[in-house]
Every structure is written in structure tokens, then in C-alpha cells.
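Example record

One chain of 165 residues, shown exactly as stored in the release files.
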Amino acid sequence: MNKEYKKILEQSSNAIEKLQNKVEDLAGNLTGDASDLWQDMKKNFSGVNEKLKNASKYLDQKSDEANLQAHLGAMEAHEKIKNIKESIEEFTNTVSNKTQTELDTAALRAHLAKKEAEDFWEKKGNAIKEEFSESSDKVQELAVEAASEIKDFFEKLSDKFSKKN
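Predicted C-alpha cells for this chain:
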């Protein structure tokens, strides 16, 4: 299970980097709020990507604590993406279509969704840790599912750029 999980974590990380590169190629054309939003999203993507990479590194260790950290990292990355998913999709669609007015609207929505995601993790982080203590297998299953969702989501967004080029 850890081999499969590690592979999914690495694929998720690669999918994030691929999307970042595609948006970065177009970022020079962004202005004002849209450019600021991209810089903010880029930081969020980097944070999520770092969580995934750290989770992968933790899997190389054999302790229960390392496994807990690996699963919590992937679940936190998933939760951050889940709460701003719609805004990221809207931003990506708009950037790929290069429509400035829609970019400004997407910028505002994404910022609000990001704040909601931060609040959610602050409130639910400890509950997830307790849940792990109760059922490490369930948490591992959820973490694999979360990493798979992240990978699929970023691959889908990245494919939108490929179809337009």
C-alpha cells in the first residue's frame, strides 16, 4: 500500500508542477488583481506540493509517527485544494481563455475560498489527528484517495491548456 501511495503522491506533485508551468507561461499577460491572484495561488500550489513531497519522504521512514505525518500531510494538501477547487478551476479556465474581466472576478472568489480553506484546516486539524489514532488504516485509505484526487484534478486542469495550444 505504501508503494502505491508514494507513487500517487509523486504523480500529484508532478501534476501540480505541470499546471504551474503552463500558467506561468501565460502569467506575463496577466494584470492587476489577476496577477496578484496568480502569485498567491502559486504560493498555495507550492505549499500543497511541499506537503505532498514531505508526505512521500515520510513514507521512506518506518515509524508510526512518520506514517501519521505522511497521511496527515496528504490529507491537509487535499483539504486545501478541495476548499479552493472551484476557484482554481475558474481561474485556470479563464487564464486559458485570456479574458481579463473574468480573471478579476475569479481572483476575488479564489481569495475568499482560500480564506475559508485556512479556517477549515485550523478547526479540523486536531480532529483528523484523533481520527488517525482511532483508525490508521482508514486514514491511510483516505490519504491515498486524497492524493489521487489531487493528481486527477491538476492533470485535468493541465489538459485544458494542452487542448487549446
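Notes: The helical segments are 2-26, 32-60, 64-97, 100-134, 136-164.
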